[in-house]
Amino acid sequence: MLERRFATLDVFTDTPLAGNPLAVVLDSEGLSGKAMQGIAREFNLSETVFVLPPEEPRHRARLRIFTPTRELPFAGHPTVGSAVLLALRDRADRQAAALADAAAFGLEAEIGTLSCAVEAAPDGRSGRARFKLPVLPTYLGEAAAKDALATALGLKPNEIGFNRHLPSRHGAGPLFTFVPLASGEALARARLDVGRFERLFPQAQADAVYLYALDPEGLGHRYQTRMFAPHLGVAEDPATGSAAAAFAGALMQFEPLGEGTHDVVIRQGLAMGRPSTIDLQLVIAEGALRSVEIGGQAVVVSEGVLRVG
User: Fold this and answer.
1) Where are the beta strands (DSSP E) in the chain?
2) Do the Cβ atoms of 281 and 201 come closer than 8 Å?
């Protein structure tokens, strides 16, 4: 039986016990996919990351990401949390904190290589990471009708949609049904009826459901969101980077975004008492989306050792 180091972090926050919790298992060589799935089920967090040596030596590591029920090709908060943790450990190993406050490296995932930039905080326990998506969001077609969505969410049909925004489906790895809501009050009140949703939309059972409304706090592109993924064993997620990445597709579809760089702030987890902040950046050139970056903070909460085969 081998000892394998792990750490837990709270991601998309700089405050312990807020944001989205994450487990990162280091020293993952020799673990089978079945063993990884069992460990992820034991942690029972929305995602658990397993860090492996990279296939390309110039990259920092290879990541495998599991929910309690299945493996994912990519997820945002595991990428941010893993990037911060690895940068902190690299700085500690070099014992040259003044020279290693910033780092840049590639993390390999099933979706492709994620180019990360990390700034470590002076406390040695937290940092901020940004990464660029290796693929752009894909439009997956129209979502279900407003009446059906309202029924599945316990809302009224006139509470679905605002401005130009209508329900839609996009993906950047994981697949999402995006549902715009007319107010923050409707967002807070929404409750996903899983059985009804699956009966109404059998073709979309692979989708997670992402609700969003305009955020009244602050100026510019700011949104409050919630995300449900019962098919992944996640009743509700406090912060979802892969959804934020795919949300870039919805913004391109419904917002009159012009040329240049657009910064978007997404607040999630408020209804769960785990407030999270996700930074989303879109670059548009010649009328097309050219790049998407996801960023946020992460803080180490605990460290320990697993004793598993």
Assistant:
1) 2-11, 20-25, 48-52, 61-66, 71-72, 102-109, 112-120, 126-132, 138-142, 168-171, 175-180, 208-214, 221-229, 234-237, 260-268, 276-285, 288-308
2) no
Average pLDDT estimate for 82-92: 92
For residues 272 and 228, give the distance between their C-alpha atoms in angstroms, rounded to a whole number: 12
What are the start-end ranges of the H helices in the chain?
33-43, 76-94, 146-153, 184-189, 194-200, 241-254
Q: How many CB atoms lie within 10 A of CB 100?
A: 17
Measure the N-to-C terminal CA separation of the chain; round to a whole number of Å: 5
In whole angstroms, what is the distance from residue 145 CA to residue 152 CA?
11
The answer to whether the beta carbons of residues 205 and 198 sit under 8 Å apart is yes
189 band by pLDDT with thresholds 50, 70 and 90 = very high
Residue 100 is predicted with a pLDDT of: 54
What is the spatial distance between Cα 93 and Cα 113, in angstroms, rounded to a whole number?
24
Name the H helices within 50-116.
Answer: 76-94
**Residue tagged active-site, from 47, 108, 159, 293:** 47
Spatial CA neighbour of 27 closest among 37, 18, 36, 40: 36
Compute the CA torsion angle 248, 250, 253, 257 (nearest 10 deg): -40
47 labelled catalytic: yes
Cβ partners under 8 Å of residue 214, min gap 6: 162, 184, 222, 223, 224
What burial class does residue 175 get, using C-beta atoms within 10 Å of its C-beta: 0-12 exposed, 13-18 middle, 19+ buried? middle
Phi, psi (deg, nearest 5) at residue 62: -115, 135
DSSP letters for 181-208: BS-HHHHHH----HHHHHHH-GGGTT-E
Tokens at residue 46, please?
């929305």
Q: How does strand 168-171 pair with strand 138-142?
A: antiparallel
> How confident is residue 95, by pLDDT bands cut at 50, 70 and 90?
low
